[in-house]
Every structure is written in C-alpha cells, then in structure tokens.
Amino acid sequence: MPWIQIKLNATNENAEQIGDMLMEETGALSVTFLDAHDTPVFEPLPGETRLWGDTDIVALYDAEADTKLILTQINASNMLAEGFAHKVEQLEDKDWEREWMENFHPMKFGERLWICPSWRDVPEPDAVNVMLDPGLAFGTGTHPTTALCLEWLESLDLAGKTVIDFGCGSGILAIAAIKLGAAKVIGIDIDPQALTASKDNAERNGVADQLELFLPQNQPEGLIADVVVANILAGPLRDLSGIIKGLVKEGGQLAMSGVLDTQAEDVANYYRDEMTIDPIVELNEWCRISGKK
After folding, report:
1. Please, are residues 88 and 3 in contact by the beta-carbon 8 Å criterion?
2. Is 262 known as a binding-site position?
3. How many Cα atoms are found within 13 Å in the side-chain-facing hemisphere of 287?
4. Which tens digits make up the pLDDT trace of 222-257?
5. Is 234 helix (H, G, I), strand (E, B) or coil?
6. Is 131 left (phi over 0), alpha (psi -120 to 50) or beta?
7. 269 assigned binding-site residue
8. For residue 267, how many other CB atoms are within 10 A of its CB?
9. Which of 64, 99, 174, 266 lies in the 20 to 30 Å Cα band around 196?
10. CA–CA distance, 140 with 137 (Å, rounded to integer)
11. Burial 31-67 (b: 16+ CB within 10 A, else e)
12. Annotation-wise, does 231 bind a ligand?
C-alpha cells in the first residue's frame, strides 16, 4: 500500500507540540523527528537563503488522505509561520521491515570487537562478536555514547577481571566485557525491563552464566569491581557520584558516558577527589570520561 509523507521544518521548542497536533488533529499515522543539521530534508532554491529551524518533522498518512486539507489544518493551528517550509511526497509500497533491516550493518569497535545484527553474516568469525539486534531495547551500539564505552572496554585487558555495568540497559556493554575476557560481570539498572533485556541478550550470546543482574535495592552490600562502566546521563552521574566511585576498587578503572561536551568538565569534577581523570574523549558532541582510582 502506498503512503503520503509530509515533511515540516520546526524547532526543538515547538516540534513535540506540532507532532501531537499532527497525530490528534490531522490523522497522521506516525510522526518522526529528525535533526535538521544532520539529515536535512529541505534544500533552498538557487540563490535563495532561508533561516530554517533545527528539527524536521516527518508525518506519514494513508495514500487517500487529503493533503490540501491537512496543510490547511496545520496552517490554522498557528504553530508555524505563514508559508511554512514543507514537502509532500508519495511513497511507493515497500517491505518496510526489510528496508529497516537493510540499514543495519555489523559495527567494529577498536581492533577486535564487533556488534552484529542476527540477520547479518559475521565479518570476522575469529574476532569478538556480540550478537545484538537494533531496536530490541536500550542501546545497540549505534549511539556515540555506547560506541565510546565499547571502544574503551576493547582497549582494556579484562582477563580475569570483575566488571560492573552501571545502568546496563540492553546489556551490550556487559556482554561485550564478558566476550573480551572478563571473569564476571554485574549489571545494575533501575528498570526491571532492562534486566530482562540484558538477560535475554546474554542468553542469545551464550554468556548468561557469567552475568549477574540486580536492581539497585537488591545488589549485594560492599560490591566492588576492577572495572566500572556507566553509560547513563550527566544528572545521575553527578547525583550518584559517591555510589559510583564506591563501586571501583583501589587501582580500578572507571568510564562514564551519556555526557555532552558542555557537561563533561563539570561531571568530571565530581570524581577528581578519588580518581585520576584521563583526557576527555569526544565523539559527535558526546563525551567519555575515564580514570583510575
């Protein structure tokens, strides 16, 4: 079945409100937000200069939808300026699931670690391969923060080490640590669904017997590890700095991400009293903070 796609240009401030309006008032079947700087969907005409917003909205409609009526409704909402930037496109019928799957490829981190979707061939059978399907839950390696943590883990000698994945999500970092040689890995997350996802992914990778999973209130007392990795957000990294530092044994190593470049120094300062902090590493405006206790 064909579809109609309407693209609008908005700002971070009004995009969500416009998206709600498109769903509730114009009958959009789905609404997607894109970073207009990374994936621009509008091109100015030759010789034309326009000031665009920073968020593009893509709304999908049934092929029978009245686009003139939809555009009139959008205009009547007064959420966008008169003559707002937009595109109307007809989409051909496709196998969208297969189209989505084709966009994901094995990703390599460091010298020997691969994250591979289950429907793809493993590029290097003798490398360290983690099988994890995009979209299952909570992180699959495509985000810069996950990539930064995977590269850090790959650079370490984890043989015989105990690792804690604080905020384990999908379990991608925990599973990678096990496959990189860690003797024991402990995953901690506040979301029971994250623990379920981590368990399922560990079983899929054949390492469930080396992974222990806990909600924070259930974790053992006095828990410490040789290596701790925490890919969460700047706020929790600041608020929970005492707890996170307490998980790292003397001489142990810590890496944290989920931090923007504008937040990194502030977050690092919460750890300098007990940690020697390495130079901060940045990837696409996201940062990794690492150090030794």
Report:
1. no
2. no
3. 18
4. 999 999 999 988 999 999 999 999 999 999 999 999
5. helix
6. beta
7. no
8. 22
9. 99
10. 8
11. beeeebeeeebeeeeeeeeeeebebbbbbbbeeebee
12. yes
